[in-house]
Every structure is written in C-alpha cells, then in structure tokens.
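> call design_seq(struct)
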C-alpha cells in the first residue's frame, strides 16, 4: 500500500531512511550516512521532504519503501532521493512508489543515484525504463592542503564571460549555470586562477558538512592544461573552505580528470551511477 505525506509517521520514516543509508547497497548516493547529516540534507531540499515523501507499507503496516523528490522547473529536472526499499520490495512495491513520487514534479527529466552495488535500484531502473548513466568515481582528500600559495582569488561578475565559456564547453546542460555559480546568494563559492587578468580556470564548490567541502566543477582552459593550474585551483578551494576533507565525483568518461585527482592526493572512495528518465510533456 502506498501512503502520502499526510498519513505517515515522520520519525518512523526518517528511521527507515537512516537505516537504509548505512550501506551503499541500499543507500541513495545524494545523501550521507550520518543521521544528522541526512536530516539536514532532507530539510534543505527545494521542496520540503515531508510534503513530497511517499511510503510503501506491507500488510502488517511495516515500512518497506520510501522516496522523496526535489525539482527545479527552470532546469526542467528532478532528483529522486531514494527510493529506499527492503530487499524483497524493489520489484513489487518499487515501480508504483517511483511513479507516485515522480508524478509530483512538473518537469521532463528525472534522476536517481546510487552506488553500483545497489543492485535493487539498477533492477528497478531497468524495469521502469530509466537509462543507466555513466558511472561516477567518488574521490576524497583528507590530508592537509599542500603548502604553497595557490594564487587563486574569488571570482567576480567581470569573470562571468570567461567562466561561462569554459563551463558551457566542459559541462553542457549541467545542473547549475555560470551565473548561478557567481551569485553571492547561491550555495557555491567560485575561485579563478587569472594571472595578468586572463581567467585560465575556475573551481566551484560548496560546503557539504562541518568537515567537508564538495567540488561541483573544475575546469582549466585547454591551452593552459598541464602547467599546474588545476592543482592551484583544487588547493585553493580546499584551503579557502577551512574544511579538513575535500570530496568530488568524476564521470567514467573523464580519464584525464581521474589521473589528475590520483596525482593530487585524492583516494577513490566509491563508484556510483545515475539513472535517468525523460518523459514527454503531458
Ligand atoms: C582535469 C583538469 C582540471 C586538470 O587541470 P590541469 O591544469 O591540466 O592539471 P595540472 O596541470 O594541475 O596537473 C597536475 C597533475 O595531474 C596529472 N594530470 C593532469 N592532467 C592529466 C592528463 N591529461 N593525463 C594524465 N595525468 C594528468 C599529472 O600528474 C599532472 O602533473 P604533471 O603535469 O606534472 O604530470 C583539466 O584537464 C580539465 O579542465 N579537464 C576538463 C574538465 C574536467 O574534466 N574537470 C574535472 C571534472 S570535475
């Protein structure tokens, strides 16, 4: 049976989500594992999670599945948080739960995201006609920032044309535009390396927790690569964040970036995969 937000017991649903987040095999990769972090991330979704949550319950009333959704009408995309399912419920309760949660988002593109070891989500995606995307390699560096002045500075609106050109070339159709990266009210901090006033590269990051900063975008102009610009930018983002850890994900189709992170002290932590559906507009 499927329940909507009015009928659920929020602490019981939160407990269920936290339990499923403890193992990559059942977790949604948008969220962490710490209960406080999960609660904080859910609270900050663009649509409140208690309004979008849908829950599947068994005949005895026990929760067997839950999912939450967030969407951005301007980007015409949604992000499904979950589904979190008991192992034997993926193909029984999963399809109707996924349909119910995505039906709320007035957008064409939908995405869900999990570790490659979450076979339940992979099966559900196949069953429901969602396309498996490129795998993402998750990297983390928890060692102190290498010393030496990175020479980076915060980006200003005057840097926007140069950042936009590089951003749209390297990350076409991505979830945040260049103007959003430069908006002082957005969650992003953006740095550039611009010796003699020419922007050679930029990095955009956001604080992820008390101890970590997450890098959303990093790109260096093709004619300035292999001269240490990328390393200055990543070190600048790490240092200016004041956080001990710096994390990010890289697509499997970016071997140069993976070589770059391996050589700048990052360790590979997990491999995750997005699943996407594009629906025609009703
Ligand atoms: C990944 C990227 C940011 C690296 O920037 P960069 O300025 O060329 O990197 P650096 O010069 O600081 O490289 C530092 C080290 O990383 C390694 N490295 C960087 N690019 C590499 C490549 N193409 N192949 C193998 N190793 C590489 C090398 O060990 C290099 O040191 P070396 O040149 O002394 O051998 C750049 O290639 C880029 O903008 N790529 C396109 C966008 C992208 O993939 N961004 C990352 C996804 S979030």
């Amino acid at each position: 049976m499927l329940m909507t937000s009015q009928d659920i017991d929020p602490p019981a649903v939160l407990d269920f989500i936290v339990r499923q987040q403890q193992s990559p095999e059942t977790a949604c990769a948008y969220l962490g594992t710490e209960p406080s972090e999960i609660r904080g991330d859910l609270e900050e979704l663009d649509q409140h999670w208690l309004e979008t949550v849908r829950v599947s319950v068994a005949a005895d009333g026990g929760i067997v599945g839950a999912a939450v959704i967030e969407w951005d009408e301007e980007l015409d995309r949604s992000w499904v948080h979950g589904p979190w399912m008991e192992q034997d419920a993926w193909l029984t309760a999963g399809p109707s739960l996924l349909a119910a949660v995505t039906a709320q988002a007035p957008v064409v593109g939908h995405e869900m995201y999990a570790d490659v070891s979450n076979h339940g989500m992979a099966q559900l995606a196949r069953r429901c006609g969602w396309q498996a995307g490129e795998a993402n390699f998750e990297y983390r560096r928890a060692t102190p920032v290498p010393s030496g002045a990175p020479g980076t500075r915060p980006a200003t609106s005057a840097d926007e044309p140069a950042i936009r050109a590089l951003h749209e070339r390297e990350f076409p159709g991505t979830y945040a535009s260049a103007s959003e990266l430069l908006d002082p009210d957005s969650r992003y901090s953006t740095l550039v390396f611009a010796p003699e006033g020419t922007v050679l590269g930029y990095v955009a990051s956001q604080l992820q927790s008390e101890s970590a900063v997450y890098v959303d975008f990093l790109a260096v102009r093709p004619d300035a690569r292999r001269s240490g610009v990328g390393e200055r930018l990543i070190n600048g983002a790490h240092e200016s964040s004041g956080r001990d850890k710096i994390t990010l994900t890289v697509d499997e189709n970016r071997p140069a970036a993976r070589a770059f992170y391996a050589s700048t002290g990052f360790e590979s932590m997990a491999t995750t995969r997005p699943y996407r559906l594009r629906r025609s507009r009703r």
